[in-house]
Amino acid sequence: MGGTFLRPYRADDLEPALDLWRRAWDRTMPEIDFGARLGWWRGRWSNELVPNNEIVIAEESGKPVGFVVIDKNSGYLDQIVVDPAFWGGGTARVLLDEAKRICPGGITLDVNQNNPRALRFYQREGFDISGTGTNPISGKPIYRCAWRP
Question: Which CATH number is 87's domain given?
Fold first, then answer.
């Protein structure tokens, strides 16, 4: 994507990131009320993700359209979120490539088993299913996926 610009997360990205997260997950899993989870997500974002992870924002025309959250020490990718209006346009791949640059030794992540679109994306990008489990928040089954260079 020639128009995608990546930059580090800044404090003033909080509200746009929360909005992107809610809109993307509302579209992905409409059976869950992500609006009702915003308070929880705000706390997790501010207290857990921001201080312990690399967060990179993707912008188009100066507007945040996605982000990736990855722990550079463990290689755990917590989130790739893209504005649904930009799905299929390459933003997720740009963000994943950045995550691979940050963690060139390998990446692990969890994918909800009822999210086949995301699973296909990760498999296309070189990830393999390495196990299964349960999402501790939603209780839904997940695949653990891994990418090794």
Answer: 3.40.630.30
Sign of CA dihedral 103, 148, 130, 58: positive
User: Token digits for 23?
Assistant: 């809109």
Tokens of 78: 């917590």
pTM comes to 0.90
Sign of CA dihedral 100, 79, 74, 125: negative
Q: For residue 42, what are the domain limits?
A: 4-147
75 by Cβ neighbours in 10 Å (0-12 / 13-18 / 19+) ranks as buried
Q: Tell me: the pLDDT tens digits for 5-15?
A: 999 999 999 99
Q: Which residues, 6+ apart, have CB-to-CB distance to 102 below 8 Å?
A: 54, 56, 70, 72
pLDDT 10s digits, 57-99: 999 988 999 999 999 999 999 999 999 999 888 999 999 999 9
Question: Would you list the DSSP string of 89-118?
Answer: TTHHHHHHHHHHHH-TT-EEEEEETT-HHH
Q: Are the C-beta atoms of 85 and 119 separated by less than 8 Å?
A: no
- How many domains are contained in the chain? 1
**Is residue 72 within 8 Å of residue 88, measured between CB atoms?**
no
